[in-house]
Design a protein that fits this description.
This protein is mainly β and 118 residues long. It has no helices and 11 strands.
Length: 118
Amino acid sequence: QVQLAESGGGLVQAGDSLRLSCAASGRTFSSLKMGWFRQAPGKEREFVAAISRDGGSTYADSVKGRFTISRENAKNTVYLLMNSLKPEDTAVYYCKATLRVELTYIYWGQGTQVTVSS
């Protein structure tokens, strides 16, 4: 079992930056692939960024060049640094952990609200 707790959301203006954090517990963090997803009102949850156990990262085209995902295994934490925020980035941001052993286990956090005003 993995527990995830996001923090760092808030209300900012367009062009500002925010850093989201997701703290994980319950399992060796280094064994987890971590990711960020977001869900805007009336829309489906969508992929934002992911980071593998060895630190390789991938991004959605909509955030590439503006967002950076990173992980700090010593603190069991994954971060999402969001620069040059746009109103269309407004959403609830969710942290996701994927554990692959014999089966694949997926865990989600409760989400943190990010609101970008124009």
